[in-house]
Structures are given as C-alpha cells and as structure tokens.
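Bug #2210: token dump truncated for C-reactive protein-like?
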Amino acid sequence: INSRTTYEQEVLLSSSKDQFKEVLLGSSKDQLNEQEVLPRINSRGSHKIGPFQLVAQLKEGPSTHDRVRWFISGQHQLSLQAFHFPLENTASYVTIVPLKPMQLKTFTLCFWVQNSNQGRQTVLFYSTPESENELVISVGMAVGVWIGGKFVQFDLHRRAEDWVHHCVTWVSSSGTINLWVNGAVGTARNIQKNYIIQSGGTPILGKRKNAMLDVFADAFSGWMSHVNLWSWLLDQNDIQELTLCKHTQQKGDVLAWGETHMSLYGGVTLGPDTS
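Reproduced locally. Full output below:
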C-alpha cells in the first residue's frame, strides 16, 4: 500500500453499506489514511462480491466526512436497494454519471419515492453552465417540472408516507408533457416546444443546487428508488409494467438504476427497497 493522500480503493463487500461506513468513519481521529482504513476493511469485510459494489475515496479536506465519498457501481444488484435521505441532514445528495450525454429531444423519467407531501422536494436536479434549471423534477404538495428554465406544475393529492410511482414524459416537437402516478396519467400540459435539453452538467438526486452560491435547497427527505431516464417516450403499457412490476428488466439508456455510477454524500444510506 502506498502513501498517497488521494486514492480510490475498490472494495467488494458482502456486508451492508452501513457496516462499511462504520468501518471507515468509526475512527475518532480526524486524519484517516490507507494504512488505517484498509486493515479495518480487511477485518470487517469479506471481499466477496455482495449485492452492490462500494468504492471508498479519501481526499484531503477539513474533516473526515469531506474526504470520504461513497460510490455505487452498477456491476452488482442495486435493484433491490433504495436510497434514504435523512431529514436532519440537508446536505444529503447523490451525484450521477449518465450513461450517455443529457442532450434530449424526448425523455421519460420514472422513479419511486416515499416521502411527506409537504413543500417542494427535489428528486432530480440537472443544470448546465448556461441554464440553472435545465431539467428539474420535484415532489411534495405538487409535482413540479423545469425544462430549459421554464416551469410547469401538476397538482398531486395523495396520502403522506405512501410509496408512489411517478413517470414524467416530454416530447420537444409538440412540447407535450405528461405525469403518470401509479400507472394513471393526468391531464397533459405544454412546455418548451422545439427545445432541446443540453448536455454538459451533472445530474443530482435529492437536492437543488445554486451553482453561484454553492448552496443546496429544496431537500428531499425520505426514500427513493428505481430512478430511470430514457431518451425516448415510454408508452402506456411500458409505464404500467414499471408500476406493477418494479423489478422489470426495463432500464433507462441515460440513467439506469443499478447500472449508472452514483456517488452518495452527506448521510445518504442504502436500505432494502420496500416499494
């Protein structure tokens, strides 16, 4: 083991993500290095291929939490897992590396969430240097959608704390946007006809980020699972299949749950998917 201060060490664990987090962050010392971390991994983790792959990355920073990031590689089964965003940590979020550029003339975004129906809570936030709200989806008292800086809202009436399946579809040629909730479609709206969503940004789950001030807002609190983004329009049968059978083989070609590289920050944890 060398003595680099910045490194990335892949660890295949059959133990839980929380246990692995305890292994890395359980030290009371502010400084962690490879000589400290890897023996703990070797003693606590089996190194067998588990339900998902975790990669720990240590970097120099003001605190341990600033230097430890969690990566989930889709080479293993994330499909049975869900993200939990804690209420008490407003800095919890997940960054995503898309499978292809986010240049979209059409899209379908589907996801499961279990959260309170209060306020505005960001599910997906995507910005570019030219457009802060290039593609944003929020839930709460309503479902809000930003495309290219324009906003449309769908009123949503549901009981708090239920798992709910959402799909948002949009076609640039007509500007038509639809919201599907638990397999049922509502009244279509129109937004940004002939617009093309631009590439060049980093998708984020769970937070809205102000790039100029480098602060987060509209925090998501609760559970999130099966986030998939397609560069085409799913039809009614496809969406209803996703609603009725969440473990279907349908995966997005832009964001694919269980395949897309994701990084967890600020206390986001993995837990069993109970949707």
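Output looks complete on our side. The first strand starts at residue 7 and ends at 13. Marking as cannot-reproduce; reopen if the truncation happens again.
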